[in-house]
Amino acid sequence: MEIQNCRICGDVFTAKFVFREMMFGMRDEFGYGECSNCGCIQILEVPHDIEKYYPDYYVSFTQEVPELKRLPFLKRIANAQRIKRKYKNLDDHTLELLKPIALVPGAKILDIGCGRGGLICNLFNLGFEHVTGVDKFISQPIDYGHNVMVLKKELSELQSDAYDLLIMHHVLEHIDDQVNELKECFRLLKKGGVLLVAIPVIGTAWDIYKENWVQLDAPRHFVLHTIKSINILAEKTGFKIGHTVFDSNAFQFWGSELYKKDIPLTLPDTHEWYPVERGFTAEQLSKFDEEARVLNENKKGDAARFYLYKK
Q1: Is residue 161 assigned to a domain?
Q2: Per the structure, how many domains does the chain have?
Q3: What contacts 214, CB < 8 A, 6 or more positions away?
Q4: What pTM, to 2 d.p., does this model score?
Q5: Which residues of the chain fall short of a pLDDT of 70?
Q6: What CATH number does residue 90 fall under?
């Protein structure tokens, strides 16, 4: 059933759009609405066959996962650079996520919608021993040893007041009922705990590219937030936003430029990412990087991390 009012604030949609699936070049069309109050953009009707748009080669299901290294905490920190070189998916972003948080090594961390669990394995190798992932869409639970596991469960099945940090790294935008989801997160956190939400946000890239903005990602992204709408969502669910970090990058430009040319984000034969060097010069990519940096400084980038504290 097509929704008539904003999922976040309940107001009406003042504008409606048609966006296409372009990550895989399916080009199926989907209706979206823009809220008259909070400004967020939302899919009007979740497809009954949404699984079709998460094939086996979807990025979350194909991520590389590093081998766990059981080392003393200080030695693991000292070996962080070596680990980064060995495992290409362990980059500075893993530690960057935790910078605004005073997190001790013994903290209990839950990564929600974690896919195969690459992030929790990275965190373990950096010294955090109490890490767990949960993803209801994996085919079966995964046990990596050392008590590092990915659970196939709903949040409602997990223990209350159990975690110091919850991570939703580019997951929230894929969730239809976000109010209830964040209420469940509030229940799972200890008092003073943090929910880290990394999401696309509506900014300059949307203004420039509109229906070709790469982060729309129809139909997988159900809700594209504004700063106002994420604040409303936090307030409705009992959270207080303590920090906001804009972390968009050149992808907002080169991905959207591909869509303007009707070029999918992935190659049709291998499903690997489009080789950006094929479509853009080094000078263009460097310019995109600089433009993203400036947008982030001015809080207008198309991606941000929000650190929500349990009051």
Answers
A1: yes
A2: 1
A3: 22, 205, 251, 252, 255, 256, 258, 259, 265
A4: 0.91
A5: 70-92
A6: 3.40.50.150
